[in-house]
Design brief:
This protein is α/β, with parallel strands linked by helices and about 300 residues long. The chain has helices spanning about 5-15, 20-25, 30-45, 60-85, 100-110, 125-135, 150-160, 230-240, 285-300, and strands at about 50, 55, 90-95, 120-125, 140-145, 165-170, 175-180, 200, 225-230, 245, 260-265, 270-275. Helices cover about 40% and strands about 20% of the residues.
């Protein structure tokens, strides 16, 4: 196995076509095809399936490519350090629930990256897609939470997808509301005190089951419910309607100065953590991201 073969496999996966990949890496298609065939033979796995519509990555291939791209990134950083030439753009992707600390940690990854060019992705998305992204190697890390209500089901799904959950911190539920909300200055809030106000939750698409909910307090317990898909809409409705949502309490005052968090009198615990593929070590960017999250949580 050579770095050149890893580059060829990466190109084929990116392009979805042997002919296009051959053009990208400046070799003939027969040379590229033979190199991929020899790599698959050596590793005794099928990295790609071939059809009249092109090539597709197999499940084994997704796992292989995740490791291969980390090797290519490391090799590129070494070459750039000693030659001054950027030969590959570092890649990194995170899929997460809507947490401000995840955005701040992602920015640390960007700032710490020394390459002249890079290709990074941050997806704030629904819970089922977070798991899917990591399982299919579209993201290296996923950020979500476990609670008494969802842990059994979520852990069952993670085990099926050969993913592991590593806890970052535990927290008690907090109510997020505007600074001018009538309940904003209370030391704690009881669920029944929120009955008069709209409860804002993140819509989970077709997988709208309770165990996929991003909020620890079920919306079925509330009289007024509004579901949204993005952070900006959530913030605007919290402020404009005297609405509220429920989260971990890991609140960023720098990015949401008009929002406050107040402890919720609810007997539950939120375990926020990251999911990743079992047996695959974190990349350099992944380690920076996790360390940045841990630093922000420790300073809460």
């Amino acid at each position: 196995m050579t770095l050149q073969q890893l580059k060829y496999a990466d190109a084929v996966a990116t392009c979805g076509s042997l002919s296009e990949a051959a053009r990208r890496v400046f070799v003939t298609q027969p040379t590229l095809t033979e190199s991929i065939r020899a790599l698959e033979e050596e590793l005794r796995i099928a990295i790609f399936t071939r059809s009249s519509r092109g090539v597709a990555v197999t499940h084994e291939g997704e796992e292989f490519l995740s490791s291969a791209r980390q090797i290519l990134d490391d090799a590129a950083r070494i070459q750039e350090k000693y030659t001054g030439k950027a030969v590959r753009r570092p890649q990194f992707a995170v899929s997460c629930q809507h947490y401000a600390f995840a955005i701040e940690a992602f920015m640390e990854v960007v700032k710490s990256n020394g390459a002249e060019s890079y290709d990074f992705t941050l997806r704030e998305t629904v819970t089922s897609e977070i798991i899917e992204d990591v399982a299919r190697h579209r993201s290296e890390i996923g950020i979500l939470y476990l609670s008494r209500r969802n842990e059994r089901t979520i852990m069952k799904i993670l085990r099926k997808e050969e993913l592991v959950f590593e806890e970052l911190f535990t927290a008690k539920p907090h109510v997020f509301l505007g600074k001018k909300h009538p309940l904003a200055k209370k030391k704690f809030i009881r669920p029944q005190e929120l009955d008069a106000y709209p409860y804002l939750t993140y819509e989970q698409g077709v997988e709208n089951a309770l165990y996929f909910a991003e909020e620890v307090m079920p919306s079925i317990d509330r009289k007024k419910n509004i579901r949204v898909r993005d952070r900006a809409t959530m913030t605007n409705l919290v402020l404009g309607l005297d609405g509220f949502t429920v989260s971990s309490g890991a609140h960023s005052k720098a990015y949401n100065p008009m929002i406050v968090s107040v402890p919720l009198k609810l007997e539950d615990t939120i375990r926020v953590g990251f999911v990743r593929c079992a047996g695959i070590p974190l990349s350099a960017a992944g380690k920076v991201f996790v360390e940045a999250v841990q630093a922000r949580v420790a300073s809460r």
